Every structure is written in C-alpha cells, then in structure tokens.
Recover the amino acids of this structure.
C-alpha cells in the first residue's frame, strides 16, 4: 500500500490543486463582495438575495434548464443508438466507430467555429441544403429557438465517450439470451425492448447523470462562440452569465455565488438518476 501511495500521489495532488482548493475558494468568495481586485469583504448571503431580484439570473437559469431538457435526452439517444447499431461485427465497422468518436476529440473551439460556418444564413451549408430541398432557410442564430436548436445540433456530435460505454456494455451481454430469443421468434424491436434496454437501464441512467453535468457546465464554448448568450438571452446559459459577472463586470463574489448555485442544481439533477438506480436495487450489494 505504501508503494501504491506514491503512484497515486500525483493524482491526489492534482485533485487538490485543481478541484478541492478552487472549490473551497469559490465557496468562500460566494459570501463576499470581492471584485477580483481588492481585498474581499464578507457580506453574508447578500449575493444569494440578489439572485432573487436578478432578471438575468432568472433568464440564464431558464435557458440552461430548457437546453438541458432538450440536449440530454437527444445526446443519450444518439450515443445509445450508435452504440447498439455498431456493436455487431460488420464490414468497415471500425471506421464507422472511429467516425462517431472523432468529434469528441476535436477541441470545443474548433467545433464551435465549424458550426458557426455551418449555420451561417448566407453561405452556410445547412441553409444551402435546405434551400436545395425547397425547405425554409431560417436565420438559425438570429432567432430564439433557432439558436437553441443550433447549439443542440452541435452538441449531438461529441458523444463518443458515452457511445464507447454503450458499445462495450452491449458486447458484454450474454449472447445465449439473444440466441434463445431468436429461437422463440422475437423480433428486433422485442429483443431491444425486453432484453437489451432492461439490462442497459442502470448504465443509461448513469450516463444521463453524467450528461447533465456536461450539458449544464460545459456549454460555455459553443454558446459563447455561436451566440454570446443571444438572441434575447435565449442562450445566456449560467456558465456564460457567471463569466460575464466575474470577469467583465468585476462581480467576482457574485459570480462565485452563481457558481455555487450551479453546482447545487447539477447535484440535484444527477441525484435523481442515482436514486432511481438505488430504488430499483441495481446498486444493492
């Protein structure tokens, strides 16, 4: 164990420096009026009281929840569908799997700039394709739901991590169960509904909890690059509002308080799938 401690020491040090200490510092600053320049002064719960009458906080919270409600199920559906579809051996299967995973390793800023071009209303390929099909060509980033839809579509591509988890889980299922179902004349839909999905249910719930974290906290880059919170605060997600308050308006203390609220909201959302898993008995020893 002593030798193992030396191997884990760099990881423990990294967790302390990059997670624990910043989290404790954020908690402290959340109860101060710190501007990021002078010495912070303790102001109790004034920052949290301010949120009650802050219309931009309400707008950013609403935008974040709407985005999560749309993006999380769609991302999970795409990752699960691709994982199940490509689990069976097929010709060129490794290339298809690589194509699904590649967008995940592309830097967020590169992906955002790519989709900024894709959704350009004048020369973007999205409207070019819609126009060629005789369909309406909306100003994607200039309307409320168009901007939300554009960011959701972009977020449907970097799902490689969840895709690999579903792929590995599907391949680990007992093939004899599927052979017995085939002998009994089960259709592909019946096999999916009564065999595959029930066995993958706890894993899918855990992936949903993980995706809530990603959707609520890692949507800064796409929203900042594509819309900068607009139009009409439709994509003013909480991470963007926190950034604006802390680094543009010198409200470092208020930004820290907003961060704490975001953490609490995220913990509440991820607790629900975990409670469901425990209720069903998947985590019982």
């Amino acid at each position: 164990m002593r030798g193992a401690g030396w191997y884990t020491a760099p990881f423990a040090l990294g967790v302390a420096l990059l997670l624990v200490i910043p989290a404790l510092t954020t908690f402290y600053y959340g109860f101060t009026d710190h501007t990021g320049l002078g010495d912070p002064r303790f102001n109790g719960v004034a920052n949290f009281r301010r949120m009650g009458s802050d219309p931009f906080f309400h707008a950013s919270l609403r935008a974040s929840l709407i985005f999560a409600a749309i993006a999380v199920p769609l991302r999970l559906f795409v990752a699960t569908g691709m994982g199940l579809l490509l689990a069976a051996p097929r010709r060129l299967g490794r290339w298809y799997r690589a194509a699904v995973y590649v967008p995940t390793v592309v830097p967020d800023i590169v992906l955002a700039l790519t989709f900024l071009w894709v959704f350009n209303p004048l020369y973007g390929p999205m409207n070019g394709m819609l126009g060629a099909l005789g369909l309406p060509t909306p100003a994607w980033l200039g309307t409320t739901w168009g901007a939300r839809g554009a960011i959701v579509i972009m977020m449907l591509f970097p799902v490689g991590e969840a895709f690999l988890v579903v792929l590995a889980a599907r391949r680990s299922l007992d093939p004899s169960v599927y052979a017995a179902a085939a002998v009994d004349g089960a259709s592909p839909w019946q096999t999916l509904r009564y065999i595959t999905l029930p066995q993958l249910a706890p894993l899918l719930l855990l992936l949903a909890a993980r995706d809530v974290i990603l959707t609520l906290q890692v949507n800064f880059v796409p929203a900042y690059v594509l819309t900068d919170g607009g139009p009409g605060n439709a994509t003013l997600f909480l991470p963007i509002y926190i950034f604006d308050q802390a680094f543009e308006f010198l409200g470092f203390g208020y930004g820290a308080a907003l961060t704490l609220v975001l953490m609490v909201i995220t913990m509440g959302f991820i607790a629900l799938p975990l409670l469901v898993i425990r209720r069903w008995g998947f985590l019982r020893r």
